[in-house]
UniProtKB/TrEMBL annotation:
<feature type="signal peptide">
    <location>
        <begin position="1"/>
        <end position="29"/>
    </location>
</feature>
<dbReference type="Pfam" id="PF00497">
    <property type="entry name" value="SBP_bac_3"/>
</dbReference>
<protein>
    <submittedName>
        <fullName>Transporter substrate-binding domain-containing protein</fullName>
    </submittedName>
</protein>
<feature type="domain" description="Solute-binding protein family 3/N-terminal">
    <location>
        <begin position="40"/>
        <end position="260"/>
    </location>
</feature>
<keyword id="KW-0732">Signal</keyword>
<dbReference type="InterPro" id="IPR001638">
    <property type="entry name" value="Solute-binding_3/MltF_N"/>
</dbReference>
Length: 264
């Protein structure tokens, strides 16, 4: 009787667990039926608040916008993460469909396919030590100077084609700013919202020690699609369609508001 009792309890437990798995599978199948297709895109792993790997998954302003835009046209996006230079390489070779976030400049347009509607716009700031007396600089001030840049990034055609700029290349924006503190560069080029986030995260290093002294102006950012993939044209067009939809129905503005002051 003792063995029979425990056998019955084990059988009920197994039945319960199998039931949970069945319900989950049905739920997942029902969710998948909402979408006409599924794609995978690669986002940068360390570019918060736009895209970064946090708690085991890709999060950020750009991630939410792309996800919502594709959902509006019945496309489900699975996100991967990688350092930006690798992200571009994976797409250039056709291993992945698209990489974000990219400038639609002459250099990248030769290699990648772009959609028309920007995901968002952001400002590239020119940063110097807090002791600097300079202000309101533009790209022309960079000529002949040591400029901190991040590996794989492009910074507009004017900056990228200026052979007089001495580039101090860093693996990440964080390293870029740290090189500025050590005076290994005269200026650092970093997007302003990224600097705001890093300054809060590493307050003891950066607060009161660096400041923005100029700008490379507001830039439009996109997904760079692979020219090696036959479906790139389709999904570039669908992204444009989705972005227009969420701008019209207010979803875009809601996401914009959510990320206006991102939590650490």
């Amino acid at each position: 009787m003792h063995y029979h009792f425990w056998f019955m309890r084990l059988a009920r437990l197994v039945t319960f667990i199998l039931g949970l798995f069945f319900c989950a599978a049905v739920s997942l199948a029902a969710t998948d039926e909402r979408y006409d297709s599924h794609i995978t895109l690669v986002g940068e792993d360390e570019w918060y608040p736009y895209a970064a790997l946090k708690d085991g998954r890709l999060k950020g302003y750009a991630v939410d916008l792309i996800d919502a835009a594709y959902a509006a046209v019945n496309v489900k996006v699975h996100f991967k993460s990688a350092p930006y230079a690798r992200c571009l390489m994976l797409v250039e070779t056709g291993q992945e469909l698209g990489c974000f976030d990219s400038l639609k400049d002459r250099k990248l347009s030769k290699t990648f396919l772009f959609h028309e509607e920007p995901i968002f716009k952001a400002e590239i700031g020119i940063y110097a030590l807090a002791s600097s007396t300079e202000n309101q600089l533009d790209f022309s001030a960079l000529h002949g100077k040591r400029i901190g840049v991040t590996h794989g990034y492009t910074y507009t055609d004017e900056v990228d084609n200026d052979s007089g700029i001495k580039r101090e290349v860093a693996p990440t924006d964080l390293s870029n700013l740290r090189k500025l503190l050590r005076q290994r560069s005269d200026y650092s080029l970093v997007y302003t919202r990224v600097v705001d986030y890093l300054t809060n995260q590493y307050a003891s290093e950066f607060k009161g020690n660096i400041k923005q002294v100029g700008s490379i102006s507001l830039q439009a950012l996109y997904v760079s699609f692979s020219k090696q993939r036959k479906d790139s044209l389709r999904y570039a067009a669908l992204l444009d369609q989705g972005l227009r939809k969420i701008k019209k129905n207010g979803t875009y503005q809601q996401i914009e508001q959510k990320w206006r002051n991102p939590a650490p």
